């Protein structure tokens, strides 16, 4: 048996060499304690994966959960990078910073290595799966992966329902006593609608080391409840730690499952026009089942085609007002929208600002809207000479479009359509005139469409989000022709 295993591993090594054009190592720290092993394919597809081995945060299992994946991935044209990260010993920032630096290097070197910088995924195993999920949920936009592959991942940092020593090693003995740290780094609690990348989870039902239900299944549940794209494959047996090892009974099936999932996730074109959809629950997709896939931004993507890359940065209940109960500009989504570096921005805020507790600060609505606009496009903050047509003032990038709120057909949640009509929309039009922006008047265009909103009288239904997408797509296509 040992000879057969050795022979199988030898064949894997030969296959890896045949498909790998270049193999080298990069130091991630000056002292070389963290390194990234690079495997570039002979025929690059543009896709890249950063591998994060497991080992309970006490060692690195970087063979069958690391370098031995290079042959299969390179054969598919996928560039592969194994991060041999520093162990935390209670300092979680060490492994986090190592993996983040690895992802940053991959994206910075994308043109040289034949990689699409918008098609960089992460693949983690066990404790490395936890680390991968931390990067997927906590890290800044520029180092957050575009997709996540999690093998039998540690997800919970509660040692009573997870792998005890992974929890202790990552958070430290003192950190384990801090309920907030345990909660925040139990990554099922950190999943964010629209913002957490698509994921596939692969594990065994009989895993005795990392309980599937409170870990991998919990992450899947959080993703599904958020409406984010997520797949999960649970194999009947295999226990824990099989990686790409040929001894795993479902080895071939697992590779087929993973390969099919990867093939089904084409990346946006590198030259696609980036469209950021900023807004409240109407943008977020409240009441629309699987809104990240069926809300108005998703519909907009389908209508515009692959020449555009549309991302949803909507967050329910948020206000334009910085003194509102839930200010949009306090959100991760706002930071992400800026980091997305959009060519086009669709802003649809104002509905929640009409609530009494928010509109008491209505005198500041204009300045807060101005702040958002000039933060997105700093060139607009520089005074310019007056021109006959205000729209000529707007710089080419990003183009900003202000959408008026759709009508509030009912006063649900104390949303006040009179304030929207008499106060908020006039301010939006004034700011648009000031900066040369285009207004998309959804309030007027939806005036006779009470059948296109849900029972609350506020949120568009499936017909409504389709109409919104059609209106906005029409405006964008017309503008691009100019």
Give an overview of the whole structure.
By secondary structure, the protein is an alpha/beta fold. The protein contains 18 helices and 13 strands. Helix 2 links the parallel strand 3 (48-52) and strand 4 (79-84). Helix 12 crosses helix 18 and helix 15 (365-376) packs across helix 16. The radius of gyration is 25 Å and the shape is globular.
Percent range for helical residues? Answer: 25-40%
Content of β-strand: 15-25%
First and last CA, distance: 70 Å
Q: Which structural class matches the secondary elements?
A: alpha/beta
Number of strands: 13
Largest sheet: 8 strands, mixed
Mean pLDDT level: 93
List the uncertain runs: 1-7, 386-393
Biggest sheet: strands side by side, in what order?
1-2-4-3-5-6-7-8
Radius of gyration: 25 Å
Query: Which shape, going by the Cα principal axes?
Result: globular
Count of alpha and pi helical runs: 18
Assembly category = single chain
In brief:
38% of the residues lie in helices and 16% in strands. The protein has 18 helices and 13 strands.
Secondary structure elements and pairings:
Elements: H1 2-19, E1 20-27, E2 35-41, E3 48-52, H2 70-75, E4 79-84, H3 93-108, H4 110-113, E5 120-125, H5 127-138, E6 147-151, H6 164-175, H7 179-184, E7 199-204, H8 216-226, E8 230-235, H9 251-263, E9 273-279, H10 281-284, H11 291-294, H12 296-304, E10 308-314, H13 332-339, E11 344-348, H14 356-359, H15 365-376, E12 399-403, H16 417-435, E13 438-440, H17 442-445, H18 462-481
Parallel strand pairs: 3-4, 3-5, 5-6, 6-7, 7-8, 9-10, 9-11, 11-12, 12-13
Antiparallel strand pairs: 1-2, 2-4
